[in-house]
Design the sequence.
């Protein structure tokens, strides 16, 4: 994957390095020009000095490694020279500077004409001295740059990382959104560069929200509209049953299907009503323990029908909640325990208040739910084993989705674990305690 950070660091570092090298080169060139001027002036001074010494025939012994050589020519006769100079002229007899090769080296030469004595003084200096100086100048200029480049790279890396931080925070804001949270993003507002991506994302979120609302509204409207014909159907079926003289199996099946259809429609309506963004919750101080007992009592005929033992344990536990929503939650969990556990099974309902929350647990010794499906059962229309449920129980897979909505509405959490029986499942809902400033 490409990285903006690596791209920026590489490009910035390359440009800076290029600029530094060009600047160093220019600096080197101008300092070398200046140094050459000085060397040349020194060479000319040397030649002038020699010319003014009224030299007579002489050979001056120089140090073996001397970098300077000279000759004095009078009327085309060499009258004096340093011992490292050749016999032939080391430069043409024309005033000014030049280059020449002798004694195995390259030399910078100067010719100086003394009008009084009519002498030509030819002086020369080895150029390798200047080259050594040039090398030194280049190294002096380039070393600090080479050493500083890693530090500069690190600095640029840190600065670019700092510059990209808003992008990361924006991504965090987007990433931390819950699946159903379509509220607009806000972080980009402070940054010009992020505003376009922020506005586009918000427009997308708005479009999503509108289509989601439309979908929900459609489901709710459709369910609502279906209620009346289903009720009519039920009445007509009842009449047909009354009028039928024989035990009509088809009518019975028709009644079962109509009841199921009615249940699905009611569940869809419940799901819509209980979704946190639709629900106009009326939060009150509620004793969850009393409410659970009430719901168990309401469901009792169903438990009795299957000869199921229901045990309740609990103490008064007050929370801030919506009565209708909490009743629906209890109803769905109890109804599942009743539906999915066999005849004669055990069901425990408990409401307790450990230190930091209120816990409602409904557990049974039925078939349980495989571990890898315990999260999925909260999805809409999900049923373990699909529509052909192993227990043969009818349902539409919406009950636990409704429970989840209600849990979210109360800032609570729900877990699905093994029950304390040998088999079976336990649903535990943890509600937050009422804050002292609350109800
Ligand atoms: P429905 O009961 O209409 O199928 P739910 O959303 O209430 O839909 O439940 C989803 C699935 O979770 C059920 O189909 C069932 O397979 C499983 N389930 C829920 N409660 C229990 C339970 N107490 N024991 C075993 N399975 C359960």
Sequence:
């Amino acid at each position: 994957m490409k990285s903006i950070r690596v791209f920026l660091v590489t490009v910035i570092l390359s440009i800076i390095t290029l600029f530094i090298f060009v600047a160093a080169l220019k600096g080197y060139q101008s300092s070398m020009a200046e140094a050459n001027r000085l060397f040349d002036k020194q060479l000319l001074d040397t030649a002038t000095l020699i010319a003014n010494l009224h030299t007579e025939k002489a050979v001056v012994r120089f140090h073996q490694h001397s970098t300077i050589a000279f000759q004095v020519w009078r009327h085309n006769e060499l009258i004096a020279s340093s011992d490292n100079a050749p016999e032939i002229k080391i430069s043409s007899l024309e005033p000014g500077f030049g280059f020449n090769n002798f004694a195995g080296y390259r030399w910078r030469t100067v010719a100086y004409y003394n009008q009084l004595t009519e002498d030509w003084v030819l002086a020369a200096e080895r150029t390798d001295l200047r080259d050594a100086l040039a090398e030194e100048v280049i190294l002096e200029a380039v070393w600090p740059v080479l050493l500083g480049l890693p530090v500069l790279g690190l600095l640029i890396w840190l600065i670019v990382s700092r510059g990209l931080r808003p992008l990361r925070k924006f991504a965090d804001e987007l990433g931390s959104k819950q699946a159903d949270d379509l509220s607009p993003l806000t972080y980009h507002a402070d940054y010009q560069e992020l505003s376009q991506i922020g506005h586009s994302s918000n427009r997308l979120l708005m479009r999503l929200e509108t289509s989601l609302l439309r979908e929900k509204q459609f489901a709710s409207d459709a369910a609502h509209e279906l209620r009346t014909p289903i009720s009519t159907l039920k009445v007509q079926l009842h009449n047909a049953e009354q009028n039928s003289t024989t035990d009509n199996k088809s009518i019975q099946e028709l009644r079962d299907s109509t009841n199921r259809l009615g249940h699905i429609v009611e569940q869809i309506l419940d799901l819509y009503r209980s979704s946190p963004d639709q629900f106009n919750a009326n939060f009150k101080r509620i004793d969850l323990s009393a409410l659970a007992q009430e719901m168990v009592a309401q469901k009792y005929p169903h438990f009795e029908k299957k000869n199921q033992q229901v045990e309740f344990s609990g103490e008064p536990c007050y929370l801030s909640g919506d009565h209708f929503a909490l009743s629906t939650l209890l109803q769905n969990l109890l109804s599942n325990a009743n539906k999915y556990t066999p005849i004669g099974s055990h069901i425990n309902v408990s409401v307790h208040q450990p230190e930091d929350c209120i816990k409602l647990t409904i557990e049974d010794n039925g078939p349980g739910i495989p571990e890898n499906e315990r999260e999925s059962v909260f999805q809409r229309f999900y049923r373990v084993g699909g529509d052909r449920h192993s227990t043969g129980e009818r349902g539409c897979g919406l009950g636990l989705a409704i429970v989840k909505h209600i849990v979210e509405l109360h800032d609570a959490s729900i877990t699905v674990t093994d029950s304390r029986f040998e088999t079976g499942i336990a649903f535990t809902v943890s509600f937050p305690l009422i804050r002292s400033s609350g109800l």
Q: What stands out?
A: The pocket of adenosine-5'-diphosphate is lined by residues 332, 336-337, 340, 364, 366-369, 377, 382-384, 389, 395-401, 425 (CB under 6 Å). Residues 131 and 345 are 102 Å apart (CA to CA).
